[in-house]
Amino acid sequence: MSPAVSRRDSAMSIGEVLAALQPDFPDVSVSKIRLWETEGLVEPARTPSGYRKFSPDDVERLRYAMSLQRDHYWPLRKIRAHLDAVARGAEQPVAGASGP
Fold it and tell me: Does this model's pTM top 0.90?
């Protein structure tokens, strides 16, 4: 199987992401996931017809960001800056949070 096919098969719809996150974050909603996308916390791929397709990395990034908000009371602005710094290697992930 080619990597493109494999990646496509592992992509999740926003409803599937919601179902994956709700056990740990019961207050999560489709609108919250969309808001976090608008705020730049996650950038899912789009199908030619515009549907969001989230990778496993996108879902883990959301899980990590939501745990920072829930457990550490971080505002979205601080979460976004931290995620960017972790991606650049400038900061380490927060211990005890669901890792990115």
Answer: no
